[in-house]
Amino acid sequence: MPHDSVERRDTAESRDAVRLAALYDAHAAPVWRYVVHLTGDRAGADDVVQETLLRAWRTPRILEQDPSTTRSWMFTVARHLVIDEVRSARRRREIGVAEVPERSVPDATDALFEAILVEEALAALTVEHRSVVIHAYYRGLSVAEMADALDIPEGTVKSRLHYGLRALRLALQERGVTR
């Protein structure tokens, strides 16, 4: 019994393959020309024809009709597929190009110049002020942690940080940084 079901399935699959091949031979080329006439897109026409043939194959009543009726049904389906593609959001957002553009890489020139500018301004500070500013802003230490690391009182850290930032602001303004 299992052998009979496999044989029936093979027969049904071969019938489907024959029907699909006959459908393709009879209608693919005219439908393709029609779609190319509508869109001007040869590659896109292949996709539309494939979908049209698939829909015809899935609709057995179409295959049982007169071939001229089947073809006009396929032209209508193809036209609707083209219209749907034109109306789709994907089509409105896509822009075809001959070559894929290179990926843009952010320019690091401005960041480099800013780093050099800050480095020069920091070099203009006294050693004490520069040390507190670097510990606070580049190492992220709290006032208490800076006091321990530099072995100075917290009040002195606060004072040096205040005056160090004022001197840094002045040094940056002298180098053309405004504000």
From TrEMBL:
Keywords: DNA-binding, Sigma factor, Transcription, Transcription regulation
SUPFAM superfamilies, A to Z: Sigma2 domain of RNA polymerase sigma factors, Sigma3 and sigma4 domains of RNA polymerase sigma factors
InterPro entries linked to this entry: RNA_pol_sigma-70-like, RNA_pol_sigma-70_dom, RNA_pol_sigma70_r2, RNA_pol_sigma70_r4, RNA_pol_sigma_r2, RNA_pol_sigma_r3/r4-like, WH-like_DNA-bd_sf
Pfam families with a match to the protein in the record: Sigma70_r2 (PF04542), Sigma70_r4 (PF04545)
Residue ranges of domain RNA polymerase sigma-70 region in the record: 23-92, 121-169
Similarity section: Belongs to the sigma-70 factor family. ECF subfamily.
PANTHER family assigned: ECF RNA POLYMERASE SIGMA FACTOR SIGL (PTHR43133:SF52), RNA POLYMERASE ECF-TYPE SIGMA FACTO (PTHR43133)
Protein name according to UniProt: Sigma-70 family RNA polymerase sigma factor
Organism encoding this protein: Microbacterium arthrosphaerae
Phylogenetic classification of the source organism: Bacteria, Bacillati, Actinomycetota, Actinomycetes, Micrococcales
